Amino acid sequence: MSDTRFRDAMGLIDDHLLERCEAYERRLAQKKRIRMGGAIAAAACLAVLIGVILFAPRNETPEHICLFTADDIAALFPKGDGLMSDGSSIAVYAPDEKALGLLPVPETNFLPIFLRTQTKETISEKSIRAFADGILPRVAQALGGEVPKYTVDVFTQGTKSASLAADTGGHGVSAYQYGYLNGFTISRYPLHNAKAATTTLNGYAVQIDQRQTDEEIIAGLYGVHKTLQEIFGVKLPDAKVVRTYNADSDYGCVVIQVYFYDKNANFMNAYTERPVSDNIELWFYNNPLFMKDQLSKDVLQYVDITYRDWRTEEGEMYKEYGVAEILSLQEAEALLKKGYSFGGHSCEICYPILTGVDFRDYDAVSFTYYWNGTAFLSGETVPCVPFYVFYKQIDTAENGNQVYAQTYVPAVYVNGLEAYFENQH
Q1: Apex CA 353: angle with CA 351 and CA 357, to 5°?
Q2: CA distance 92 to 90
Q3: What count of other Cβ atoms lies within 10 Å of the Cβ of residue 188?
Q4: Virtual CA dihedral for 414, 314, 127, 150, nearest 10 degrees?
Q5: CA distances from 387 to 89, 156, 194, 333, 378 (A)
Q6: Residue range 247-258, pLDDT digits in tens
Q7: pLDDT (tens digit, 9 = 90+) per residue, 299-317?
Q8: CA distances from 252 to 314, 351, 401 (A)
Q9: Which end of the chain is more exposed for a tag (fewer CB within 10 A), N or C?
Q10: Most confident of 57-61, 129-133, 289-293
Q11: Which of 173, 232, 163 is nearest to 199 (CA)?
């Protein structure tokens, strides 16, 4: 920020705004639901006020402090990236409302806003070898194979990265490195030419029965969970299951992902479908597009295991940017009825775009943090913004799954939202 702009920003700090910020801090302290990372009240107030300068027109006595304009929110859903920002919705599939994986609506009036930053750690053959060599011996032992030899490829054009691939114990193993992430994968999927009948780690079969509840699946993976933490040298005590359905498969889920993570490692873990902190993912395949004889209505065995290790501290990748006042559910419903919502990610095959859906009598609501993943991967710093997610059951698919329209309504106060959508129309 230039000296002139900084002085202009400081000029907007008057007693009215300071009183509002101090009131925010008192409410936050009473709720005891938001961790501010040790920041003192004055620092939090300054973050909020600078956010007002950057994202909203000057308003010395606002009814609600707006950290974002409508254009800022629309930028999270750029149409060119298969996203819709004009009141559309997308189709998602599930056997029933419970299978939508709804996240809880927070019982608080304020939430922290984060900026997701792609830090630029060094990429080199030396650093990826150090990462892989610390894991490969334990992986080979758990799979009953030998420690493999490998070569490293370092890519310096486009998205800089380094990677290696090898085989051990009838499985493919690979490691990869970006400026912000180290990853390690054990592959069981048939397209990887896996030779083993079932992935087994230290005698524990890595398989699940999709007919079971999430709790039963997690309990059945107890030995696998313990072994994977030992292999990767981490403590990730929590687990969650994410199920994905489509409109035509007669074999239940097309993908089931099981995540081992630490729910307390990042505040947003409570409000995102997949963990945003270090995690181990079990990706169980059951998609007719890629599989034929291996499809199953019960036990799933074809799995990729991926460990993701963010190369920077949580506080560096997800910087606490400010505190936002949250709309009540009733206020979000009022915006929804006006059509002031955003479509989210779409895909012609998986999540087709819908228009003209009447959400006034919606069936379910969830809550999540959302950001522009495409912009993040291109190196931009992106805001992570809370949204209400509304669902309306609109049809039944050929395979019996319910078709739900899904749309996003900002859970924060946004400047110029009405004018934005009027211009869209």
Answers
A1: 120
A2: 7
A3: 24
A4: -80
A5: 14, 37, 41, 12, 23
A6: 999 999 999 999
A7: 999 999 999 999 877 667 8
A8: 36, 17, 9
A9: C
A10: 129-133
A11: 173
